[in-house]
Amino acid sequence: MVPPSLRGRLALIAGFAALTVIVLGVLYAGHSRPGSVDRWFIAPTADSVRPPWRYVALALDFFGEPAGSALVVAAAVAGCLLRRRPRAAVFVVAGAGLTVVATTLLKSLVGRTIHGADNLSYPSGHTAFATALALMAALLAIRRLGLGRTAGTSLVLAAPLVAGAAMGWAQVALGAHYPTDALGGWCTALVVVPVTAWLVDRVADRLAGRTADAGPRGPR
Description:
Layout: H1 7-27, H2 36-41, H3 53-62, H4 66-82, H5 86-110, H6 125-145, H7 149-173, H8 179-213
Helix pairs in contact: 1-8, 3-7, 4-5, 5-6, 5-8, 6-7, 6-8, 7-8
């Protein structure tokens, strides 16, 4: 799932992202108000964006909800299977699923809230999901198009940045998350997706090796 030429750089990105997730999680653990960094951008309120941009934010938000995310993942999996790429389909499902699991666990662990004690906010699951999809799409496109190191690195950086920024803006504009929640979600995806890609490759290669070993043998 990850081209050999990009493994080192992607591992470095994942390392910095993991450090960011940890630092922000420790910094805002148990908090229920925006921090100083959040105030540089905007204080989350439900009325912080007006039509027509509010409609754009709501549309983006839908694709991070269970129904919308299921539609997106189903469409991506169908596309992979139509192209006869089952490993890519597994990668999409596993990457999206593990990203959701990771953000859910981190929310419970960090305990940061917004608009009441029942609304855990760090990290943003919507932002993480959008970032994960964009990064997985970028990795699959690199393999498909045979992009080199420079072009591949540019795509790996640009795609999740644009997707994460768009969804993060929507979440902050709708008052669902603090800006640092969106940053934490973005970084969470940058950690989960490369790890998922490595796991999918390892399992798939091992299964392929066992199948080859168990194949038909000639007469002795």
